[in-house]
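For reproducibility, we list the full input for the NAP complex.
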Amino acid sequence: MTSAHICDAVLPELGADTDREYRLGIMGGTFDPIHYGHLVTAEQAREALDLDLVLFMPAGVPAFKQDQQVTSAEDRYAMTVLATAANAAFDASRFEIDRPGVTYTVDTLTALRERYPDNVKLFFITGADAILDIVTWHNAGRIAELATLIAATRPGYHIDQVRDRIEASGFNFDVRYIEIPALAISSTNIRRRVAKGKSVRYLTSESVIGYIRKHGLYNSSVVERTDVL
Ligand code: NAP
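The corresponding predicted structure, in tokenized form, follows.
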């Protein structure tokens, strides 16, 4: 099955009106679990960059987490669907979780580029910490050609390090930075709080909290990755 074939099955129609530009945000993350920091990031990116739609794309097998225990892709996807359901400008995509093997962003962006006409512009949104390593990602130079990057930072985050690394790489990345106070919330912290029986209300949606409880996610065996509280 080609990547374009998978795309046909799961992606929304966009770009039919060739007289106008469509701006598609791709919100990439492990989303283990999705939380309000992610949702606020996507909403503010949508507003700041005038995006028509933000596709939340949980990574199937995250490239840099192959040696870590990650909650099943189906659970992460289900929580993403629940959290994004009420926003007409958000959609959750199975594209990366249905693709076998390690998830490489360049494969996703290449497939989207093939799937949509040229009047659809691609914007890849993720955390600045992830962007910091982008020069080491598979086929990083091609990513720079395919999409504008939107890097979400938390207050106090120094973007100089990201800028320096990207400049030194020689790749022509177009990176926009947006500061998101709600990114003080982290998936790591939510997993740890659930494991300790602490409240996670107001850190993520009630629907996600209900799903976590119903399916018994984040008991102690899954929580301990490489994270330190
Ligand atoms: P991560 O290293 O777990 O995340 C780094 C930081 O960014 C964390 O603080 C994380 O907070 C935050 N973050 C992650 N996604 C975010 C988002 N969409 N919006 C705001 N903050 C976000 O990163 P990851 O989740 O594994 O990967 C992020 C994206 O980069 C995914 O789409 C992944 O496929 C892609 N990636 C690609 C490659 C490759 O192609 N070789 C390699 C690495 C990553 P939380 O933990 O609270 O989310």
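The beta strands are 22-29, 53-58, 90-92, 120-127, 148-153, 175-179. The domain at 3-9+21-185 is CATH 3.40.50.620 (Rossmann fold). Both points were considered when choosing residues for closer inspection.
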